[in-house]
Design brief:
Oligomer: single chain
Strand content: under 5%
Shape: elongated
Distance between the termini: 53 Å
């Protein structure tokens, strides 16, 4: 069990022992719900990051250059005009350096 899961379990146990739903004007149930949702999403993000890492390992084992694959993913996120502008500047800078 991860540290986050352990802390969440301990927190829920403390909360169950305290029956007062509102402390200092704070709706404890609503706060607990928000925190638990964020914790679940963080666990999902961690799992997704592991899945992405596995896919990059698969790409590498298939002979693909992972750095180039990452660049392609970055380019696909951008607008075509932005990509064209960057490629034009890159070409200009290369020519200025005699490359």
């Amino acid at each position: 069990m991860s540290d986050v899961e352990e802390a969440a379990r301990e927190s829920r146990a403390r909360q169950a022992a305290d029956p007062d739903p509102e402390v200092g004007g704070i709706a404890a149930d609503r706060l607990r719900s928000i925190i638990e949702r964020v914790e679940r999403l963080e666990e999902e993000r961690k799992a997704l990051a592991g899945d992405i890492k596995d896919i990059f390992a698969e790409a590498k084992s298939a002979g693909f250059d992972v750095k180039v694959v990452r660049q392609l993913i970055s380019i696909r996120k951008k607008e075509p005009a932005e990509v064209e502008e960057q490629e034009t500047l890159l070409d200009l800078y290369r020519r200025a350096l005699g490359m």
